[in-house]
Amino acid sequence: MTTSVEDFEHVLEPATTPDTPTLVLLHGTGADEYDLLPLGRALAPGAALLSPRGKVDENGLNRWFRRLREGVFDVEDVITRTDELADWLTVALEHYELDPRRVVISGFSNGANTGAALLLRRPGLAVGAALFASGAPLQGREPDPVDLSGTRVFLGAGKVDPITTIDRTHLLAEQLTSRGADVVLDEHAGGHQIPAEQIVRAEEWFVRCGF
Ligand code: MLT
After folding, report:
1. Rounded distance between C-alpha atoms, residue 78 and residue 137, angstroms
2. Ligand 1, atom 8: nearest CA belongs to which residue?
3. H or E element in which residue 47 lies
4. 109 lines ligand 1 (CB under 6 A)
5. CA quadruple 50, 178, 168, 161: dihedral sign
6. Which residue minimizes the CA distance to atom 9 of ligand 1?
7. Which of 54, 113, 170, 206 is 20 to 30 Å apart from 36, CA to CA?
8. In Å, how far are 73, 80, 141 from 70, measured between CA atoms?
9. Cα–Cα distance measured from residue 208 to residue 210, given in angstroms and rounded to the nearest whole number
């Protein structure tokens, strides 16, 4: 089946500053493609923002992949949906004439897990990612031995997050680092949220990376 730009509901905010990377935004459970636009504008002022909507409907809540219950993922669905999203992103970047070599992913919670799955399944799709409240998405499986050298990742995590527990974030950090990614692990004292101070640190990281 041919992938079309219409396959995901999405919003595209064109760049207002030339020579900036494209930020792909992946919302959390129950949100939509508009939710993370302010985060995107904070992280990458002037950059193009490409923000799709997850297609899985969990009792009326948008998600990126199915889960069996909170914290327990349908890993086959994670893989299928991640690959579908990766194919769509490739088509959407071409459609909007965005440079495929300058893509950075950002996401929260379910969207961050999906961003992590994109990194682990499609190395080369993104040069970096700022993921908030993400754990290792391929639960119970060792991801393929892909080469992520040159990929910069900011992982924002809450030490007492009851949904994405800190050990799950640590496992993701280990999976990314052992595949060559340059990972910054930024822990805050709270739970399943993105504190304002962490957004500031992510902004500083973004500037330092020079995407
Ligand atoms: C998930 O991917 O299911 C997250 O960890 C939790 C959530 O989105 O509610």
Report:
1. 7
2. 110
3. none
4. yes
5. negative
6. 29
7. 170
8. 8, 19, 18
9. 5
pTM greater than 0.85 (yes/no): yes
Q: Could you tell me if the CB of 28 is within 6 A of ligand 1?
A: yes
Q: Which residues of 176-196 are buried (b: 16+ CB within 10 A; e: fewer)?
A: beebebebbbbebeeebebee
Q: Residue of the nearest CA to atom 4 in ligand 1?
A: 110
Structure tokens at 81: 């949906």
Per residue in 93-140, pLDDT (tens digit) is 999 999 999 999 999 999 999 999 999 999 999 999 999 999 999 999
Ligand 1 atom nearest 164 alpha carbon: 5
Residues annotated as part of the active site: 109, 161, 192
Rg over alpha carbons for the chain, rounded to the nearest Å, is 15
Cβ neighbours, 10 Å, residue 90? 15
**Position of tokens 């700022």?**
130
Q: Ligand 1 centroid to 43 CA: how many Å?
A: 22
Cβ atoms 7, 86 nearer than 8 A: no
Cβ of 51 closer than 6 Å to ligand 1, yes or no, is: no
203 alpha-carbon distance from chain centroid: 15
Mean per-residue pLDDT for 173-192?
A: 98
